[in-house]
């Protein structure tokens, strides 16, 4: 049975009688509520065949669920002067019955088959080559979905944050450079002052020694004179 199973799906079953006698047949199923069989019983003449339509009712298809539906076609030779089909099956002996079992298979159409069917049903587009200079852009190259748009917005926010961070670092480095230049200037001024004081100290040292020498000389001269 080919899907989708949103509507009635009909499959034909062909029964053929290869014998030289009339054959009675009956079609049974393990899921009678899911299938409608027409005709579900009858008689096939020698060398003839009959078409049985099996109609599957709509249902919710689950690909993970394995199909357990089965059909069985029972046959037996028809007695002469048959009048009651139910009596034939009730009176038939087990060794006079023949049966064939069939398992139901559900098949969903492939995505490629759907695309091919859709493309085949659409008319071929007509291109106006007189106004077309180059190849036409693909639809996905000019349209962005919500996910790509959100990614672009987040990337812009991240770049703005990086720019602000770099601006702050640049300002901090500029302030640090000014501070270092001021410190270097003050260090130069302090060193020149120290040099001047050292020079003054070195210049006043000989005068102090002269004064001390004069005191000692005066002291000794006073001793000798007295």
Automatic annotation (TrEMBL):
Residues 1-107 form the MSP domain. The keyword Phosphoprotein applies. One of its GO terms (cellular component) is bicellular tight junction. Residues 111-143 are annotated as: Disordered. InterPro entries: Ig-like_fold, MSP_dom, PapD-like_sf, VAP. Residues 149-176 form a coiled coil. It is a single-pass type IV membrane protein. SUPFAM superfamilies: PapD-like. Residues 111-120 have a biased composition (Basic and acidic residues). The chain crosses the membrane at residues 205-225. It is found in: Cell junction, Tight junction; Cell membrane; Endoplasmic reticulum membrane. It holds the Pfam family Motile_Sperm. The keyword Disulfide bond applies. One of its GO terms (biological process) is neuron projection development. Endoplasmic reticulum (ER)-anchored protein that mediates the formation of contact sites between the ER and endosomes via interaction with FFAT motif-containing proteins such as STARD3 or WDR44. STARD3-VAPA interaction enables cholesterol transfer from the ER to endosomes. Via interaction with WDR44 participates in neosynthesized protein export. In addition, recruited to the plasma membrane through OSBPL3 binding. The OSBPL3-VAPA complex stimulates RRAS signaling which in turn attenuates integrin beta-1 (ITGB1) activation at the cell surface. With OSBPL3, may regulate ER morphology. Belongs to the VAMP-associated protein (VAP) (TC 9.B.17) family. This is Vesicle-associated membrane protein-associated protein A. It comes from Uria aalge. The gene is Vapa.
